[in-house]
Automatic annotation (TrEMBL):
InterPro entries listed in its UniProt record: Phenazine_PhzF-like
Organism lineage: Bacteria, Bacillati, Actinomycetota, Actinomycetes, Kitasatosporales
UniProt xrefs under SUPFAM superfamilies: Diaminopimelate epimerase-like
Protein's UniProt name: PhzF family phenazine biosynthesis protein
Amino acid sequence: MTDYDVLRVFCGPDGGYGNELGVVREGSVLPEPAGRQRLAAELGFSETVFVDDPERGVIDIYTPAARLPFAGHPCVGTAWLLDVPELVTPAGVVGTRLDGEFTWIEARAQWAPPRTLRQYASAAEVDALKVPPPGERSEMGVPPDEVWGRLYAWAWQDEAAGRVRARAFPGRGDGIDEDEATGAAALLLTDLLGRALNITQGRGSQLLTAPQPHGWIEIGGRVSLER
Protein backbone atom coordinates (compact mmCIF):
# COMPACT_ATOMS: atom_id res chain seq x y z
CA MET A 1 0.00 0.00 0.00
CA THR A 2 1.28 3.48 -0.86
CA ASP A 3 2.19 5.53 2.22
CA TYR A 4 0.26 8.75 2.73
CA ASP A 5 -0.50 11.32 5.40
CA VAL A 6 -4.01 12.43 6.32
CA LEU A 7 -4.48 16.09 7.27
CA ARG A 8 -7.48 18.11 8.33
CA VAL A 9 -7.51 21.51 6.62
CA PHE A 10 -9.48 24.63 7.65
CA CYS A 11 -10.14 23.34 11.16
CA GLY A 12 -12.44 25.29 13.46
CA PRO A 13 -11.23 27.46 16.37
CA ASP A 14 -11.25 24.46 18.72
CA GLY A 15 -9.21 22.37 16.27
CA GLY A 16 -12.17 20.25 15.16
CA TYR A 17 -13.81 19.76 11.81
CA GLY A 18 -11.76 20.65 8.72
CA ASN A 19 -11.70 18.82 5.40
CA GLU A 20 -9.64 15.63 5.19
CA LEU A 21 -6.75 15.62 2.72
CA GLY A 22 -4.53 12.74 1.63
CA VAL A 23 -0.90 13.60 0.84
CA VAL A 24 1.50 11.14 -0.80
CA ARG A 25 4.88 12.65 0.06
CA GLU A 26 6.78 10.37 -2.32
CA GLY A 27 4.95 11.00 -5.56
CA SER A 28 7.58 9.03 -7.48
CA VAL A 29 6.04 5.77 -6.23
CA LEU A 30 3.07 6.48 -8.52
CA PRO A 31 4.47 8.54 -11.40
CA GLU A 32 1.68 7.93 -13.91
CA PRO A 33 -1.62 9.89 -13.82
CA ALA A 34 -3.69 6.71 -14.17
CA GLY A 35 -2.14 5.19 -11.05
CA ARG A 36 -2.61 8.40 -9.11
CA GLN A 37 -6.22 8.61 -10.18
CA ARG A 38 -6.87 5.04 -9.04
CA LEU A 39 -5.37 5.70 -5.61
CA ALA A 40 -7.32 8.96 -5.21
CA ALA A 41 -10.52 7.04 -5.98
CA GLU A 42 -9.60 4.28 -3.50
CA LEU A 43 -8.81 6.74 -0.70
CA GLY A 44 -12.03 8.67 -1.28
CA PHE A 45 -10.90 12.05 0.06
CA SER A 46 -12.30 15.11 -1.70
CA GLU A 47 -8.69 15.64 -2.86
CA THR A 48 -5.41 13.74 -2.72
CA VAL A 49 -2.04 15.41 -3.33
CA PHE A 50 1.06 13.79 -4.82
CA VAL A 51 4.31 15.60 -4.00
CA ASP A 52 6.70 15.43 -6.95
CA ASP A 53 9.42 17.71 -5.52
CA PRO A 54 9.21 18.52 -1.79
CA GLU A 55 11.98 21.13 -1.90
CA ARG A 56 10.47 23.11 -4.78
CA GLY A 57 6.90 22.40 -3.72
CA VAL A 58 5.83 20.73 -6.97
CA ILE A 59 2.46 19.02 -6.43
CA ASP A 60 -0.22 17.16 -8.39
CA ILE A 61 -3.88 17.23 -7.18
CA TYR A 62 -6.64 14.66 -7.77
CA THR A 63 -10.26 14.27 -6.74
CA PRO A 64 -11.65 10.70 -6.75
CA ALA A 65 -12.66 11.29 -10.38
CA ALA A 66 -10.38 13.93 -11.95
CA ARG A 67 -7.06 15.75 -11.91
CA LEU A 68 -7.21 19.42 -10.86
CA PRO A 69 -4.82 22.20 -11.91
CA PHE A 70 -5.47 23.96 -8.58
CA ALA A 71 -7.51 23.49 -5.40
CA GLY A 72 -7.55 25.49 -2.19
CA HIS A 73 -7.61 23.05 0.71
CA PRO A 74 -4.94 20.76 -0.84
CA CYS A 75 -2.61 23.73 -1.26
CA VAL A 76 -3.16 25.03 2.28
CA GLY A 77 -2.64 21.55 3.76
CA THR A 78 0.45 20.75 1.69
CA ALA A 79 1.96 24.18 2.41
CA TRP A 80 1.65 23.43 6.13
CA LEU A 81 3.12 19.94 5.74
CA LEU A 82 6.10 20.89 3.54
CA ASP A 83 6.78 24.36 5.03
CA VAL A 84 7.99 25.77 1.71
CA PRO A 85 7.70 29.37 0.43
CA GLU A 86 5.67 28.36 -2.62
CA LEU A 87 3.89 25.50 -4.31
CA VAL A 88 4.10 24.77 -8.03
CA THR A 89 0.77 23.65 -9.51
CA PRO A 90 -0.32 23.25 -13.15
CA ALA A 91 -2.39 26.44 -12.73
CA GLY A 92 0.55 28.52 -11.50
CA VAL A 93 2.89 29.22 -8.60
CA VAL A 94 1.07 29.51 -5.27
CA GLY A 95 2.71 31.65 -2.61
CA THR A 96 2.59 30.27 0.94
CA ARG A 97 3.27 31.51 4.47
CA LEU A 98 2.78 30.26 8.01
CA ASP A 99 1.47 32.81 10.50
CA GLY A 100 1.04 31.40 13.99
CA GLU A 101 -1.87 28.95 13.98
CA PHE A 102 -2.83 29.80 10.38
CA THR A 103 -1.35 28.64 7.08
CA TRP A 104 -1.92 30.96 4.12
CA ILE A 105 -1.73 30.58 0.36
CA GLU A 106 -1.94 33.26 -2.33
CA ALA A 107 -3.74 32.38 -5.55
CA ARG A 108 -5.89 33.82 -8.34
CA ALA A 109 -9.64 33.42 -8.75
CA GLN A 110 -9.33 32.34 -12.39
CA TRP A 111 -7.47 29.22 -11.27
CA ALA A 112 -10.54 27.93 -9.43
CA PRO A 113 -13.03 25.63 -11.18
CA PRO A 114 -16.33 27.36 -11.99
CA ARG A 115 -19.05 27.21 -9.34
CA THR A 116 -22.58 28.48 -8.87
CA LEU A 117 -22.34 31.01 -6.03
CA ARG A 118 -25.91 31.23 -4.71
CA GLN A 119 -26.70 33.71 -1.94
CA TYR A 120 -29.44 32.92 0.59
CA ALA A 121 -31.28 35.33 2.86
CA SER A 122 -29.99 33.89 6.13
CA ALA A 123 -27.52 31.46 7.64
CA ALA A 124 -30.49 29.39 8.83
CA GLU A 125 -31.57 28.84 5.23
CA VAL A 126 -28.11 27.58 4.34
CA ASP A 127 -28.11 25.30 7.39
CA ALA A 128 -31.46 23.83 6.33
CA LEU A 129 -30.35 22.83 2.82
CA LYS A 130 -30.30 19.12 2.04
CA VAL A 131 -28.25 17.38 -0.61
CA PRO A 132 -30.78 16.74 -3.38
CA PRO A 133 -31.15 13.28 -4.91
CA PRO A 134 -29.82 13.16 -8.48
CA GLY A 135 -32.49 13.65 -11.11
CA GLU A 136 -34.94 15.40 -8.80
CA ARG A 137 -35.83 19.05 -8.31
CA SER A 138 -34.94 19.99 -4.76
CA GLU A 139 -36.21 22.39 -2.15
CA MET A 140 -33.47 24.75 -3.29
CA GLY A 141 -35.79 25.74 -6.11
CA VAL A 142 -33.29 25.20 -8.93
CA PRO A 143 -32.93 22.41 -11.47
CA PRO A 144 -30.84 19.40 -10.44
CA ASP A 145 -28.18 20.09 -13.08
CA GLU A 146 -27.49 23.43 -11.40
CA VAL A 147 -27.75 22.06 -7.86
CA TRP A 148 -25.28 19.34 -8.69
CA GLY A 149 -23.12 21.69 -10.75
CA ARG A 150 -20.70 22.76 -8.02
CA LEU A 151 -23.15 24.78 -5.94
CA TYR A 152 -21.69 27.02 -3.24
CA ALA A 153 -24.54 28.20 -1.02
CA TRP A 154 -23.78 31.18 1.22
CA ALA A 155 -25.37 33.85 3.41
CA TRP A 156 -24.19 36.67 5.58
CA GLN A 157 -23.95 35.95 9.30
CA ASP A 158 -22.63 39.46 9.96
CA GLU A 159 -22.11 41.50 6.80
CA ALA A 160 -20.36 44.39 8.54
CA ALA A 161 -17.79 41.99 10.01
CA GLY A 162 -17.45 39.95 6.82
CA ARG A 163 -18.72 36.77 8.47
CA VAL A 164 -20.26 34.23 6.07
CA ARG A 165 -22.06 30.90 6.47
CA ALA A 166 -21.49 28.55 3.54
CA ARG A 167 -21.98 25.00 2.32
CA ALA A 168 -20.65 23.39 -0.87
CA PHE A 169 -22.22 20.67 -3.00
CA PRO A 170 -19.61 19.69 -5.63
CA GLY A 171 -21.90 17.45 -7.68
CA ARG A 172 -19.08 15.49 -9.27
CA GLY A 173 -20.74 12.12 -8.88
CA ASP A 174 -17.66 10.70 -7.16
CA GLY A 175 -19.16 10.02 -3.73
CA ILE A 176 -18.41 13.46 -2.26
CA ASP A 177 -21.91 14.90 -1.85
CA GLU A 178 -20.84 17.86 0.32
CA ASP A 179 -17.43 19.43 0.87
CA GLU A 180 -16.61 20.27 4.47
CA ALA A 181 -14.30 23.13 3.45
CA THR A 182 -13.66 24.48 -0.05
CA GLY A 183 -10.82 26.93 -0.57
CA ALA A 184 -11.39 27.43 -4.29
CA ALA A 185 -15.02 28.45 -3.72
CA ALA A 186 -13.93 30.85 -0.96
CA LEU A 187 -11.49 32.32 -3.48
CA LEU A 188 -14.32 32.92 -5.98
CA LEU A 189 -16.62 34.45 -3.36
CA THR A 190 -13.88 36.79 -2.15
CA ASP A 191 -13.21 37.87 -5.72
CA LEU A 192 -16.94 38.49 -6.26
CA LEU A 193 -17.43 40.52 -3.07
CA GLY A 194 -14.03 42.24 -3.14
CA ARG A 195 -13.47 42.08 0.62
CA ALA A 196 -11.93 39.99 3.37
CA LEU A 197 -14.15 37.17 4.64
CA ASN A 198 -14.40 34.90 7.67
CA ILE A 199 -16.28 31.84 6.40
CA THR A 200 -17.82 29.05 8.45
CA GLN A 201 -18.44 26.09 6.13
CA GLY A 202 -19.83 22.60 6.60
CA ARG A 203 -20.20 21.44 10.19
CA GLY A 204 -17.80 24.03 11.61
CA SER A 205 -14.72 24.56 9.44
CA GLN A 206 -13.23 28.07 9.25
CA LEU A 207 -11.70 29.75 6.18
CA LEU A 208 -10.20 33.25 6.20
CA THR A 209 -9.65 35.23 3.01
CA ALA A 210 -8.19 38.61 2.07
CA PRO A 211 -7.88 40.33 -1.33
CA GLN A 212 -4.35 41.35 -2.25
CA PRO A 213 -2.95 43.74 -4.90
CA HIS A 214 -2.86 42.83 -8.60
CA GLY A 215 -5.68 40.27 -8.48
CA TRP A 216 -4.21 37.92 -5.88
CA ILE A 217 -6.24 36.57 -2.97
CA GLU A 218 -4.99 35.01 0.26
CA ILE A 219 -6.77 32.04 1.83
CA GLY A 220 -5.85 30.89 5.32
CA GLY A 221 -6.81 28.26 7.83
CA ARG A 222 -5.72 25.86 10.54
CA VAL A 223 -4.22 22.48 9.64
CA SER A 224 -3.76 19.39 11.79
CA LEU A 225 -2.17 16.01 11.17
CA GLU A 226 -4.74 13.29 11.67
CA ARG A 227 -2.56 10.29 10.90
